[in-house]
Amino acid sequence: MAIKNKLITAANYRDFDWNKAKLFYHIAKCGSLLKAAQVSGIDQSTLTRQMQALEKQIGCPLLIRQSTGITLTRKGEELLNKVAHFFLEVKGFCGNNHVEIGGDKKRKIRVSTTHALAAYMINDLLIQYNKEHTNISFELLVNDHSIDIILDDVDIAIRPYDSTIEHIQQEFLFTLEKKLYASEQYLAKHGEPTTIEDLKHHQFLAYPNSVDYPYSNVAWVLRLGMPKGKLRKPFFTSNSVECLIDAAKNDMGIISGYEQMKIFRDAGLKNILPNVKYKKIECYFIFPPYLKEDSEITEIKNYLKTNLNFQKQP
Questions:
Q1: Contact, 97 vs 239, CB < 8 A?
Q2: Pair (142, 291) in one structural domain
């Protein structure tokens, strides 16, 4: 029996399927079979069969399937840690990406962040940097959900700190704080609030409460000053920050947003109740450890730190 067990173990190791391991990694990071199937480019039933085969090969369950999504067993967490480290090592071994443009070879650097950070903070800085460093070709990827160095095959991610990530470098870049804004004309008509209690007499512009946004509580402004568990009714809703700002500029009500973002700085709105802020969101420069000594990555990081210096490191 002992010999038989040894043979089974050796066969399992020799036949270990790294393609299935990659699919497992997708599931673990996405937290659902449906999202992982979309990322992997296969249908959900095929993905389920692949995981059943992997669990059979390893000899123990890796996933706990629940109505709310997928969680990992203890062995699943161990496997995730090992395959994540392996994929990062392979990514580093493969080296930097390059692209030929106009007969010149340029280094391609893939940067991933959220839509808002890309559009209103990061994109202009990367364009300016690129004008001075023509040997680089940036690829800016935007995603309002989880950003993963391996899943998205990126060199740099800019997002809030993620305590669940292992084997990854995360260095502080800047802090965001939501504040309240309204147009001067709106305040002249409705009065400027001086206390949170005064907000009950005002109109609010907000995201729909059903919007799924992982890095910020979009319903914060609807809970502000309300009894626990209660939401005020917004006067106008949109899942577009541009539409909400336009509504605020047209004197329709109070909006919440980040003063660090160019779209708010340029909107001509007045910050009201300046001491009332949503909890800080600290954003980090995230990259794989094999790029820690990379001079070009270090220069980009320092450039962003210098030009996003409206907040000091906490």
A1: no
A2: yes
Residue 56 lies in a domain: yes
Residue 26 maps to which CATH number? Answer: 1.10.10.10
Burial of 263 (C-beta count, 10 Å sphere; 0-12/13-18/19+): middle
The per-residue pLDDT for range 48-77, each reduced to its tens digit, is 999 998 888 888 899 988 877 888 899 998
Q: Does any domain span residue 314?
A: no
Strand 178-182 to strand 255-258: parallel, antiparallel, or no bridges (unpaired)? antiparallel
Split at pLDDT 50, 70, 90, the class of 215 is low
Average pLDDT over residues 82-93: 77
Q: Indicate the residue among 43, 75, 94 that finishes a domain.
A: 94
Residue 85, CA atoms < 13 Å, CB-side half-sphere:
8
pLDDT range class, residue 236, cuts 50, 70, 90 = very high
Most confident region among 3-17, 120-134, 144-158, 297-311 by mean pLDDT: 120-134
d(CA 300, CA 213): 27
